[in-house]
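This section describes the prediction task in plain terms. A model, or a person checking by hand, is given the sequence of a single protein chain and must write out its three-dimensional structure as a string of tokens. No templates, partner chains or ligands are provided. The sample shown here is typical of the held-out split.
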Amino acid sequence: MANPNMREERDSEFVDRLVHINRVAKVVKGGRRFGFAALVVVGDQKGRVGFGHGKAREVPEAIRKATESAKRQMIRVPLREGRTLHHDVAGRHGAGKVVLRAAPPGTGIIAGGPMRAVFETLGVHDVVAKSLGTSNPYNMIRATFEALKAEDSPRSVAARRGLKVSTLQSRRRESAEMAEG
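The expected answer:
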């Protein structure tokens, strides 16, 4: 998958994805001074992901700052079989609302722009996601991260309740069978 926006770093296990570049102008006496703001998502494709924002007068410097910022604030997301989410989850930030749904194998990543970058760097292979509300990439990514922080694995739920994972999953199957019949 040779994507021009995704590049591997030489000495690192992280993959970074440039999501958005914004050009801003400051009007001064001699004309306009341009600056750039970059939004970057960084992940190890094994369940860790982070996003960062960097501003500078040149694009490469803004991207470098954003990448460093993203590496500093990475989160770990539990994945089922290393390919999808454990359960459906919703997140919001400002006007950005997202709904993330676990999907069966072979579905692929069905998600819009900025969310797709998050899932590709996270290492998710099957997910269905919908963005509601804003299309602002900053708020979409922040809403996606809010949803991913709410993601829980059966192991952590069992530990919190003082149960075994097998007990928890057998109860889940029983409730699903009762709902059907």
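For orientation: The beta strands are 6-8, 15-28, 31-43, 48-56, 74-76, 89-93, 96-102, 109-110, 127-133.
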